[in-house]
Design a protein that fits this description.
Largest sheet: 8 strands, parallel
Structural class: mainly beta
Oligomer: single chain
Strand content: 25-35%
Helix content: under 10%
């Protein structure tokens, strides 16, 4: 059942008074739930069945002996998700306290298409994640920190403040009955970009837990990595080609120029993606990339932009991609990045992770056996005689 707080109904918080009144803001909300007090309040909701929290959560206006006291400073409202069920924040929310996931699943947003747009909510103009077909906002948290203390945080919407993963799971994309939290591919936005000051906000901090990313289709495809023009054994020339990918394709879904760049986003049908307004800070945990559930069949030349960030202080610390930058995924990915196993598909395929901690990108590349390399080199010699290769990537 949907969250259905009626007009005047009181919901007890840790401190303060949290009330709900009828209202229909953007997102077809059934109610306002607010902290009508000057004292900060925490609303703990134990949700043991799956439900949509289609209410507008906000700090609110403190109440006085006679009525609302518009001169008083409102206390922050914080939310904590408890219980084994799934709860969906389907409305653009405006509370300033924390959002904590302790048990079960909290899905932020629903049916987000990966794009970023501007909408009107009452008298306020908001910029946030678009819902399906850009019909409205996908849904959001408030502006305070979102903390994953257990359970799972998923969704295709907008986490407006910092995100801190201490335990449990971070799984971008909406929940799926078949594949669980984040079982559908999608983009989760964290923070924002203050256009007036060009100062992105919102950090993603990994302290522990697991981050789950799923692949269905590549962000882009580079034929020169598939036809033998470039392969790992070439050394410096191959590495130079790979290093130029983010620069050559700046202003595309592979390498956006800034947070929420119009028309530049990973489609919700492609793969999971996280866009961070501020910095990525890694202190612990693991990132698991899964291709099998979504039916992706790896091919050389496929490029995946999994994480974008726009702060200047990103620090991946001691993050370990595995035994090398070129991995099969059959146990050689023995660090903090767990990749799909390529050995049963084509023994020449490798995951190139050299761009992951600098740009959030992984690439499927070729590492051919010696006999295959002879064929590739011979073929390239014929091509060179026929035409002069350009310096363009692709």
């Amino acid at each position: 059942a949907d969250l259905d707080a009626k007009a005047g109904q009181a919901i007890n918080g840790t401190t303060g008074v949290i009330t709900a009144t009828d209202y229909t803001p953007l997102g077809d909300s059934s109610a306002i739930i607010e902290n009508a007090s000057a004292t900060p309040g925490i609303l703990r909701i134990t949700q043991n069945t799956d439900a949509t929290w289609d209410a507008y959560f906000r700090d609110g206006i403190p109440s006085g002996p006679v009525g609302e006291n518009c001169m008083a400073t409102p206390g922050s409202l914080s939310l904590e998700k408890l219980g084994t069920g799934k709860a969906v924040l389907s409305v653009f929310n405006d509370y300033t306290g924390t959002t904590t996931v302790t048990d079960g699943e909290l899905q932020v947003g629903t049916a987000g298409d990966g794009s970023w747009d501007t909408y009107t909510q009452g008298a306020t103009t908001i910029t946030t994640t678009s819902g399906f077909g850009q019909s409205g906002a996908a849904g959001s948290t408030g502006t305070g920190d979102t903390i994953v203390a257990g359970g799972a945080l998923s969704g295709s919407g907008h986490i407006r403040g910092n995100t801190i993963v201490n335990a449990g799971m971070l799984a971008p994309g909406d929940s799926s009955g078949t594949f669980g939290p984040g079982g559908s591919t999608g983009t989760l936005y964290i923070g924002s970009n203050d256009v007036s000051s060009s100062n992105p906000v919102g950090n993603l901090t990994f302290n522990g837990g697991t981050t789950k990313m799923q692949l269905a289709l590549a962000t882009d495809y580079y034929p020169s990595l598939d036809d033998g023009t470039y392969y790992i054994e070439q050394g410096a020339s191959y590495q130079s080609y790979i290093a130029d990918i983010p620069n050559y394709f700046a202003g595309t879904a592979v390498s956006p120029n800034y947070f929420g760049e119009p028309g530049v986003f990973v489609q919700d049908t492609q793969h999971d993606h996280i866009t961070v307004g501020g910095d990525v800070l890694w202190n612990g945990g693991n990132i698991v990339v899964d291709a099998l559930d979504m039916g992706y069949f790896p091919a050389a030349g496929d490029v995946f932009n999994l994480i974008d960030w726009f702060g200047l202080g990103t620090n991946w610390g001691a993050f370990n991609v595995g035994s090398s930058n070129y991995l099969v995924g059959n146990g050689d990915d023995n660090g903090n990045l767990d990749l799909p196993d390529l050995s049963g598909i084509d023994p020449a395929l490798r995951w190139d992770t050299s761009l992951f901690t600098s740009h959030g990108i992984i690439v499927v590349a070729l590492s051919p056996e010696p006999s295959r390399m002879v064929l590739l080199i011979g073929g390239l010699g014929i091509v060179f005689l026929r035409r002069r290769r350009t310096n363009r990537v692709g």
